[in-house]
């Protein structure tokens, strides 16, 4: 991925991950690995953490302590009601 130097990398990575989720490349309950994403995008893990925080705030992913970060499923929303 080639980054736009006028925008934060974490934001561009978040947009790319969002595209992958919406296209089905990252299906529901797919586990996102900080280490793998950092290597793929050539950035520090802190940059990936900023991107995943934005995705979590947008409701696209869910982080479960001691298990990992996953693409949210529609079933995940049922527990919030």
How would you describe this structure to a colleague?
Helix 1 (9-23) packs across helix 3 and helix 2 (34-41) crosses helix 3 (45-57). This protein has a three-stranded antiparallel sheet with strand order 1-3-2. The chain has 81 residues and is an alpha+beta fold. The longest helix is centred in the N-terminal third of the chain and has 15 residues, at 9-23. A hairpin with a 3-residue loop joins strand 2 and strand 3. It is globular and about 40 Å long. 51% of the residues lie in helices and 12% in strands. The chain has helices at residues 9-23, 34-41, 45-57, 74-78; strands at 31-32, 61-64, 68-71. It is built from four helices and three strands, in the order H-E-H-H-E-E-H.
Can I get a quick summary?
This protein is an alpha+beta fold and 81 residues long. Helices cover 51% and strands 12% of the residues. A three-stranded antiparallel sheet has the order 1-3-2.
In whole angstroms, the N-to-C terminal distance is 38 Å
Biggest sheet layout: 3 strands, antiparallel
How are the strands of the biggest sheet laid out side by side?
Answer: 1-3-2
Percent strand: 5-15%
What best-fitting shape do the alpha-carbon axes yield? globular
User: Number of DSSP helices?
Assistant: 4
Salient structural properties:
81 residues, alpha+beta, 3-stranded antiparallel sheet, 4 helices, globular
Describe the secondary-structure layout.
Layout lengths: L8 H15 L7 E2 L1 H8 L3 H13 L3 E4 L3 E4 L2 H5 L3
Antiparallel strand pairs: 1-3, 2-3
